[in-house]
Amino acid sequence: MNKPLFTSVLQVAVVVKNLDESMKIYSDKYGIGPWVIYEFNPQTVQNMILNDQREDYAMRLATCDISGVQWELIQPLDDKSLYAKFLKEHGPGLHHVALGTENYEETLKKLREMGHKIIQGGTWHGFTYSYMSTEDDLNVIVELYNVPQDFKWPEPEKVYPEKK
């Protein structure tokens, strides 16, 4: 391979047991934030995928920016998602890294040709995310984004800490 499949680090994601408690520690103790909070579920995400099959799941998440890289905390809201499985098997911790690509479709095709599958994914407000089965090769799950040019972040459910 002459050129890299991945071009940048976009996000670092950590699975947590309790999103509110985790945000409080990150923000109040370490000054990391502010956090914007969203819920992903069958009402907010279309075409949910688990193990290359159409299946619903749910999670609550919060994101913030650390020097141009998004930091994400994720609390599973069911026992089906990758996050729930990860929490049960490993406890809280680093779950995946989102990496940028020159072209989502071409990278997805190349990864599939290498034998990888989408182990979790969906489309949220037109923004498609795909977790790839890269953990055996790279020792981490890689998430890919396919973001429409006109994508705008929706209003969060809440922000922590709240603006005064």
* Count of structural domains: 1
If classified by CATH, what would the architecture be? Answer: Roll
Our estimate of the beta-strand percent is 35-45%
Biggest sheet, spatial arrangement of strands: 4-3-8-9-10-7-1-6-5-2-11
- Radius of gyration, rounded? 16 Å
Order of helices and strands: EHEEEEEHEHEEHEE
* Total helical elements: 4
Record field, number of beta strands: 11
Percent of residues in helices comes to 10-25%
Overall, the morphology is: globular
Decide which structural class fits the backbone: alpha+beta
Q: What is the mean pLDDT? A: 96
End-to-end Cα distance, whole Å, is: 52 Å
Annotated CATH topology: 2,3-Dihydroxybiphenyl 1,2-Dioxygenase, domain 1
Uncertain segments are: none
Looking at CATH, the homologous superfamily is: 2,3-Dihydroxybiphenyl 1,2-Dioxygenase, domain 1
Largest sheet report: 11 strands, mixed
For the record, the CATH class is Alpha Beta
Provide structural commentary:
- It is a single chain.
- By secondary structure, the chain is an alpha+beta fold.
- It has a single domain (8-159), classed as Roll (2,3-Dihydroxybiphenyl 1,2-Dioxygenase, domain 1), CATH 3.10.180.
- Helix content is 21%, strand content 41%.
- It contains 4 helices and 11 strands, in the order βαβββββαβαββαββ.
- It has helices spanning 19-30, 82-90, 104-113, 135-138, and strands at residues 8-15, 35-40, 45-50, 53-54, 59-66, 69-76, 93-100, 118-124, 127-132, 141-146, 158-160.
- It has an 11-stranded mixed beta sheet with strand order 4-3-8-9-10-7-1-6-5-2-11.
- Strand 5 (59-66) and strand 6 (69-76) form a beta hairpin.
- It is globular, with a radius of gyration of 16 Å.
- The termini are far apart.
- The model has no long low-confidence stretch (mean pLDDT 96).
